[in-house]
Amino acid sequence: MACRSTSPSSSSAVEKIPSTSIRILRSVEAVRRWRRPHTLDRRTVGFVPTMGALHEGHVSLIRAAARENHHVIVSVYVNPAQFGVAEDLGSYPVTWAADSAVLARLDRELASDGAGFLAAGVSAVFTPSTADMYPAGFPGQAPDSPGSFVTLTPISSVLEGASRPTFFRGVATVCMKLFNIVQPDRVYFGQKDVQQTVVIRAMVRDFMLPTAVVVGPTVRAPDGLALSSRNVYLGARRRAVAPVLHDALRAAETAYSSGAGARDRDAILGAARSLADAVLADQMALAPAQRVRFEIDYLSLSDPETMQELAQVDPARGAILSGAIRILPVEDPQPDEDRGHSDGPLVRLIDNIIISPADTAAA
Ligand SMILES: Nc1ncnc2c1ncn2[C@@H]1O[C@H](COP(=O)(O)OP(=O)(O)OP(=O)(O)O)[C@@H](O)[C@H]1O
Ligand SMILES: CC(C)(CO)[C@@H](O)C(=O)[O-]
Ligand code: BAL
Predict the structure, then answer these.
(1) Half-sphere exposure of 306 toward its Cβ, with a 13 Å CA cutoff?
(2) pTM of whole model > 0.90?
(3) Which InterPro entries does the UniProt record give (predicted)?
(4) Ligand 3 pocket, mutate which of 61, 171, 198, 352 (most atoms under 8 A from CB)
């Protein structure tokens, strides 16, 4: 898969994705001009922020926005502030040609299948530059960088935030900017990044932002792997083993929900850990040219609102099972082996399962 293509070219005043009515908006001012009449006309705007490299997870959020709003706007912007200094900003997949084809296909689908959709298509895509988004200059990526940032603690310091100390500061900062620019009635986020949804809900609540946060379910490949733009880094060998995180979380969920039902952290997370250990042992029994090595960053059982770790699950409250793994570069790559985008660097994947109070009532 080609992962780097040119960004949309600038030309006429009203630029559109070819053969569609999807407006391409490049500047803050262009979005404000597009937005203004919808307020006057009392037309609702649903907003789906993305970093591009669009897949069916993004598409499911755009469809949800189209069901509930008169207009849908998608942003495609790889936000430097949420990448740590040693992270993959330089190789993050940028696939504008494929992304515009995804949006065009979806636009046609919404136009032809009016049933169930308020929006008749995708109205606009916002593709700002970093100079637009960070007028004071390229944002600092180190924890002590000066700059104008939105910080939410303690939620931003645990789990993903412990491994990626500036990640949620970058996400909250860019989302605050995007929400201020787009002024959406509703914003759409995926459950795949569950801690991000908790951070965004906290930001909307604590800063009194006039928007509703909608969270869509995680879209998965048939083998359970959560779709993710970073999956392109995997290559075939590592892709085959990548569902291990989802399988481990499901083992934990089963420990909770089956039989007498474990409520204790060690019993629940122990089930996940055992499954992952068994998969790793099987891999390590293979030759270096065949095997895949991975490390568990964390497995967590946390409170659904604060994401603080739990010793026990209160069935009336539910919990979040989540985890992150690092899949190491392949050893002994074969001459014709597909190692993945950017020669298959270390890939860090996340996933989660929500134990909802309703599930526990049924258990
Ligand atoms: N599999 C998925 N199902 C549902 N929503 C998803 C899925 N993957 C991503 N999203 C959501 O799409 C939005 C944009 O995410 P983003 O562009 O970072 O894609 P991503 O696949 O999560 O990328 P990355 O691999 O960098 O984490 C976020 O709200 C994210 O939670
Ligand atoms: C919300 C977001 C677009 C902010 O850059 C990003 O974190 C993502 O794609 O999940
Ligand atoms: N989907 C979350 C974006 C990131 O990991 O940077």
Answers:
(1) 7
(2) yes
(3) Pantoate_ligase, Pantoate_ligase_C, Rossmann-like_a/b/a_fold
(4) 171
